[in-house]
User: Fold Protein GrpE from Pasteurella dagmatis ATCC 43325.
Amino acid sequence: MENKMSEKEQRIESEEQIQEEQVQAAETEVEAAEEQDVLGEAILRVQELEAQLEEMAKREQDFALRSRAEMDNIRRRAEQDVEKAHKFALEKFSKEILNTIDNLERALSTNANVEDESVKALFDGVELTLKELLSTVGRFGVEAVGSEGEVFNPELHQAISMQPTEGFETNQITVVLQKGYLLNGRVIRPAMVMVAA
Assistant:
């Protein structure tokens, strides 16, 4: 009986050992599965972080490009402002000097007796002064606009009146009452004119 017991005991022991091995195998599988889950989660987290890093790099590159473009725009605007300041710095001075030009032209348009030598010398002096003044302001970009026969342009001319006039087509300037002037292409005073209707 001892032998039978021992066989029974051996079988029970063997079954217990098998069960133990099965339990250990199951625990190992569970641990492996847990490790696999942890590894999978870690891989997913690494992928998420890589995606975030890539997006941040794109944002940084976009920000750098926008910043560079903005700086270029600011530099270009500043250059344009400086150019305009240089170009039109004389605008106020030019407007003031136009009165002197007008007065010299009026002096030349009077019906003075040019036969008299003293009046002729004065007349010639005023004429030379006007030519020199026009030449000087011309070097700085001031030019006259508005002459008889030109087509009326509301950007350059200011119409005082319209009347039918022989020898002129509609919208042609018939009389220039006061010359207009441009400074580097920009109107500083429009010409006051009469226009044919």
Remarks:
- The chain has a mean pLDDT of 87.
- Helices lie at 2-88, 91-109, 117-139.
- Residues 1-89 form one domain.
- The two ends are 145 Å apart (CA to CA).
